[in-house]
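Dear colleagues,

For the upcoming journal club I promised to circulate an example of a predicted protein-ligand complex. I picked one with D-gluconic acid because it came up in last month's discussion. The inputs are reproduced below in full, followed by the predicted structure.
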Amino acid sequence: MHRRDWLRQTTLGASVASLPLLGAAAAGAAQPAAGRQLPRLRILDVKPILTAPAGIRLVVVKVTTSEPGLYGLGCATFTQRPRTVETAVERYLKPFLVGKDPAPIEDTWQSMWVSSYWRNGPVLNNAISGVDMALWDILGKRTGVPVYQLLGGKCRAAVDVYRHASGAKFQDVERAVRGFREKGYRHVRVQVAVPGLATYGAGGAAGDAKVPLNRRIETWEPAAYVRLVPRLFEHLRKQLGDEVELLHDVHERVPPVLGMKLVKDLEQFRPFFVEDPFSPEDIGYFEHLRRQTCAPLAMGELFNNPHEWLNLVSGRLIDFIRVHLSQIGGLTPARKLAALCEFFGVRTAWHGPGDVSPVGHAANVHLDLAIPNFGVQEAREFTQAEQDVFPGCPVLRDGYYHANDRPGLGIDLNEKLAGKFPIRDDPPFDMRWGNVRRRDGTIVRP
Ligand code: GCO
Ligand code: MG
């Protein structure tokens, strides 16, 4: 075949599957036995399902195929803007995907990603993630293997996790850590409230309940917090010793230079990692911090765009990548991010609190099992209602998340029951995030 004919044929946009193998076929060479081809299926439906069995607004996507009973589930949870993701899936991805083959996952990801021209944002990435994870779930079910097997198989038997301990006083946090130790946990995140201030992860002074939610101010001041947290760690190391791994989340709530000071002051207490000392907008500070401390640094739950992690990872400026899988577009980009991190000594600690659906937690666990550079996984105990709505949730035992080794992601969805836990639209989201202010009224990054 002439090169010109080949180019004309390819540039005329023949679909991927119809491109002939160049040369070998033309040359009539003996063909190696073709691999077992998956029979061609069609995507029949792409449906966003919004539910809140634990009172947290969750979004999952169900992709149904032309094979009766064969469908996949994916997490698309952007809990602060769930209805926007619902619209992105329902009005844009569904008409774009119905009729297409669910098998070419990477090609489908790439075409969804560029289909909006503008890309790498939280709403569209979550919508894409819902479909992407569902396609991996379908492929696992079709091939009869768990998704971790499709990703290269297990590198470990189970996934080491961390839980959240918090309190108003040091003794409260200490008691909570002891509780987790007794249950077999080795890693515990510790947060303490700053008296009189609304403190991330530890409650503290809430806003005035008489004021309408959208104008209810929560007050925060960074200096008191930056003085208090090292004293918390000192107390915990004295009372609990060195065995327990202690983590802390600064949650980007302090001016960058105070974030640097806090990390340096915590170094002597051997934190497992200190998370989000800076906001994504201030990642330029990491190279300064890195030169001054070897306290392990974790970053990434707020990332949507590869530009946010490329320099941090390739510059070895962080030790743990914390992205929220659906906020970057799902399992397909996350497995590549994990591979990139491997080459720069960065380990994973995927985002895993309540606003990741149980399907998202299952995807986290499958990826955690299959990558050599796994660090730790943020975990939570699923409520009974969540376990009923999502049969097959990852199981917590002895401080580990365990996958159930069923085909696909191993998790299902009881749609009827999910309907019994509709998300709240009034208010449409947790408005605290935009209402945290300094005493002088200055808005604070939450
Ligand atoms: C964490 C996070 C969460 C976020 C929440 C936002 O480390 O788990 O910081 O607590 O604040 O996911 O909706
Ligand atoms: Mg965090």
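Two points we might discuss: The pocket of magnesium ion (ligand 2) is lined by residues 249, 251, 275-276, 301 (CB under 6 Å). Residues 122-143 form the longest helix (22 residues).

See you all on Thursday,
B. R.
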